[in-house]
């Protein structure tokens, strides 16, 4: 679209056209607007091509994708900012190509103080979100595909725009948050530096249980599990009440989804082991009955 329009503009300046002056003016202005729009469209599509070319080297569907998530987040925000600026420039150029809007711009410049205050107040929120997007692109408190806890919900960062962030919740819901939320409010990021995470399982058993036997059983379960990364584990007595012992099983996993699956697997198998091998060690309430004569 752009190249034919440029060629027509060049030929129109070289070859005389036998048309009335008013019609030539309308055609010239229409050609200018079409050329500006085509230039803007080409620039936006070029940024999209640049994004695809850069991101081909960084895949998100691999185990260790920390660097890929950094690049994807930066490119997404940078491309959106460039697109916003290109559209702003194109709209301004189209409006300034008409004499009426050009005179309006001149009158606005004459009262630049008042106009600047009004526009600045009206655009305060938008500019704040734009600056927040730039800050996120640079400091990266969140990245694409990060695992986060926001508003008490577990989810992944699915999309980052100039005004809002989409968090994909584990149950397929989507939470939409303003981008300034991640600058102004605290939240948990489980994959800030690495996706590795520790999972815990709590069990409550009777005082008669053999902790060493349960510890050996936990190690056997972990070694047979495909979710354990083999880096760490433990079984400790973390509390003792008047009714039961509190046992904490600690295990490492390569990422939070695997940690969830591993916790469920360990919990189920340890309970099944206690029920089958040591049913008398399940939590119980003891009472003494005194018979009267």
**Dominant shape:** elongated
Sequence of strands across the biggest β-sheet? 4-3-2-1-5
The tally of strands reads 8
Poorly predicted tracts of residues: none
Class by helix and strand content? alpha+beta
The gyration radius over C-alpha positions equals: 32 Å
How would you describe this protein?
The structure is a single chain. The longest helix has 35 residues, at 21-55. Helix 2 runs antiparallel to helix 3, helix 3 (66-96) runs antiparallel to helix 6 (124-139) and helix 8 (211-224) crosses helix 9. The protein has helices spanning 2-14, 21-55, 66-96, 99-110, 112-122, 124-139, 181-184, 211-224, 256-277, and strands spanning 147-150, 153-160, 164-169, 174-178, 188-189, 197-205, 233-240, 245-253. It is built from nine helices and eight strands. The strands form two sheets. The protein has a five-stranded antiparallel beta sheet with strand order 4-3-2-1-5. It is elongated. Among the domains are: 2-114, no CATH class; 197-281, 2-Layer Sandwich (Alpha-Beta Plaits). The termini are far apart. It is of the alpha+beta class and 293 residues long.
Topology at a glance:
Blueprint: H1 2-14, H2 21-55, H3 66-96, H4 99-110, H5 112-122, H6 124-139, E1 147-150, E2 153-160, E3 164-169, E4 174-178, H7 181-184, E5 188-189, E6 197-205, H8 211-224, E7 233-240, E8 245-253, H9 256-277
Helix pairs in contact: 1-2, 2-3, 3-6, 8-9
Summary?
The chain has 293 residues and is of the alpha+beta class. It is built from nine helices and eight strands.
């Amino acid at each position: 679209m752009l190249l034919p329009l440029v060629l027509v503009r060049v030929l129109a300046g070289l070859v005389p056209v036998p048309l009335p002056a008013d019609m030539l003016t309308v055609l010239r202005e229409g050609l200018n607007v079409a050329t500006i729009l085509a230039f803007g469209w080409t620039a936006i599509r070029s940024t999209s091509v640049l994004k695809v070319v850069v991101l081909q080297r960084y895949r998100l569907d691999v185990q260790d994708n920390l660097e890929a998530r950094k690049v994807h987040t930066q490119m997404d925000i940078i491309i959106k900012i460039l697109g916003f600026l290109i559209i702003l420039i194109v709209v301004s150029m189209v409006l300034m190509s008409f004499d009426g809007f050009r005179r309006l711009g001149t009158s606005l410049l004459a009262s630049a103080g008042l106009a600047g205050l009004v526009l600045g107040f009206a655009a305060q929120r938008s500019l704040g979100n734009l600056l927040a997007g730039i800050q996120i692109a640079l400091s990266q408190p969140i990245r694409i595909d990060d695992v986060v806890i926001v508003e008490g919900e577990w989810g992944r960062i699915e999309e980052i725009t100039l005004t809002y962030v989409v968090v994909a919740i584990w149950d397929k819901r989507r939470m939409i948050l303003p981008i300034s939320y991640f600058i102004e409010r605290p939240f948990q990021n489980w994959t800030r530096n690495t996706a590795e995470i520790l999972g815990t399982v709590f069990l409550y058993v009777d005082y008669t249980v053999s902790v060493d036997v349960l510890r050996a059983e936990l190690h056997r379960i972990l070694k047979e599990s495909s979710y354990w990364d083999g880096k760490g584990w433990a079984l400790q007595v973390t509390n003792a009440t008047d009714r039961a012992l509190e046992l904490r099983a600690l295990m490492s996993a390569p990422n939070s989804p695997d940690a969830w699956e591993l916790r469920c697997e360990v919990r189920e198998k340890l309970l099944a082991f206690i029920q089958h091998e040591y049913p008398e060690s399940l939590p119980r309430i003891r009472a003494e009955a005194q018979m009267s004569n």
